[in-house]
Amino acid sequence: MERRTCCHGHGDLIDSTMSSFAHNNNDLLVRNLYQFIIARLNGDDIPSPHYREEIRRLVRSGIGGFVLFGGERDEVRQFLEELQSEARTPLFIAADIERGVGQQVRGTTLFPCQMAVAAAIDGASHEDVGLLTEVLRSIASEARYVGINLPLIPVLDVNRNPRNPIICTRAFSDDPDTVARFGMMYVRVLEEEGLVSCAKHFPGHGDTAVDSHISLPVIGKSLDDLMETDVMPFRQAIAGGVSSVMVGHLSVPAIDPAPATLSPGIHRLLRNDLGFRGIVMTDALTMNALCQVPEAELSCFLAGSDILLHPEDPDEIVEKMRAKVVSGDLSYERIESSLARIIRRKALLVRKDMGAIDFPRHHHLASSVAGKSVTIVKGEADVIPLTRREDICIFVVGEDGFSLDPSLAALSGKIGTLEGPPATDDIGEKVAIVAIFTHIAAWKGSAGIDAVEQHRIRSIVRTARRSIVVSFGSPYVLRHFPEADVLIAAYEGTENAQHGVAQWLTGSRTPTGRLPVSVAGHGA
After folding, report:
1. Domains plus CATH for the chain?
2. Model-level pTM?
3. Is the pLDDT of residue 11 over 70?
C-alpha cells in the first residue's frame, strides 16, 4: 500500500498559510480558500476540450475537489488521473454512490440500495456479514479504479415517515439500531479501503415528507427524541471513525429554527456534544432549501462547515470569502482550523495497487444481494409457485422509464397497464400480478403512487381470483393493498430485483428478505 501526501507536505502548507496572512499574500489566501470548495464535474462533458480546460483552470486555482456526476468509466478514470497529477494538493473526488459506482459511472456495477441491503443481510449471520463485506470492498475497488476517494456514503437517516420523498429506500431502516449497525459496517470497510467515508444527512433527514431539493424540511420533534432516534447512528459512526459528516438542509427547531447548514448550534452539537473532529461538509448548495437565504454559502462556512459542496459559482464564492477576510468578518483562525482538517485528511489518502477489477464477479454479488432482499410482506402458500402461463396476467403500474425484465414477462402472455389491456373484466379467473414501479430521486417530491392508481389497483385485487402486488421501489406503497393475497417488497426496479421476484414466483428460490421498516402493520 502506498501512502500519498500533498506535494509539499501538509504541515508545510498549513505553516505557509499562516505566514501568508501575516504578510498579506493574497494569491496564497485565494488558493487556500478554494480548498473549501468541492465543485461539480459532469462526466459526460469530459470529451469537450473547452470543458476540460475549465475544470483544469479550477485545479490550477486550488479547488478542493469535485463531485462527479455521470460519464464513461475509462474516460472518467483517465481524466481524474490527469487532474490529480496536475493538482498541487490532492483533490477530493466525491460521488453519490449509495448503490455503487454504477449509480454514476457507466461501465461499473450498480448494487442494491441501502434498504435492500438491510432486507437481505442478517447481521447475526457470519455468512451474510461476509457477503456484505465483499460487496463493500467491491464498491470501494471500483471507486478507487475510476478515481473516487470520497464516496458520499453511508446514508444514516432513520426513515420514520412513510411519505418521505427523498430518503425512503436510501435509508437502511426505520430503526435507529439497525441504521447504526449497518452504517458502522460501511464506515469500517470504506476506511479500511483507504476511502473517506461520509455520514449523511446530519442531524437526520428521515422524519419528514419534504424534499430539501425543493424546500426546507422542518423536523418538529423534541430534542430527546432527536438524540435517541436520528442522531444516534451518527454518534455511533463518529465513534467508529467516520472521516466526514454531511449536514442536511433541514430545520430542527428544538435546536435552532435556522437551516442546519447555517446553524452554529447544529455544528456545536456535532463538534462539542458528539466530539467529531473530522471534516464537516454541506449538502449540495444548489438545492432550493436555501434559495431564500442571501449569501448562504458564506453563512454555512461561518456556521462551522469545512467544505462547501456543489456551489453554483465557485469563483464567486471564493471572491466573497476573500472580501470577508479583508473586511475582518472572516478570521484567519477560522480559515486555519478548517484548512488543517482538510489537509490532514488529504495527507492520509492512500493509493492501493490496482489489479484487474472483476466486474463480472461484482455483478454476481449485486444479483445475489438483490435476490436475497426480496421480502414477502404477506403471502399464501397456495398461490405460489405459478405454473400456468395462461392463468396469469400482469399489470405494470407507476413511473415511466421502467420495463419488465424478460424473467417476469415470461410468466404471462397478457401484459398491460391500468389504462390498457388486459381489461379487469377478463381477470376473474386469473392470478393478477401488479408490478408497481417507483423510485427515489431529487426534485420529484413524491415516493409513491397517486390516489387514482391506488383505486385502480384495488379494483384489480377485488376482481382477480388471486392477486399479487409487488413494489419495485418504496415498500410503503404496499400499505394501500391489504386485501391482496400476496404483497412483495423488492425495493427497486432493477433487472436483478425483478429476476429475484420471478424466481420466487416460479418456486425456484426461497425468499429470505426481512422487512426493514413497518408497513401496514407488518413490523420489521
Report:
1. 1-95+313-348 (no CATH), 374-505 (3.40.50.1700)
2. 0.93
3. no
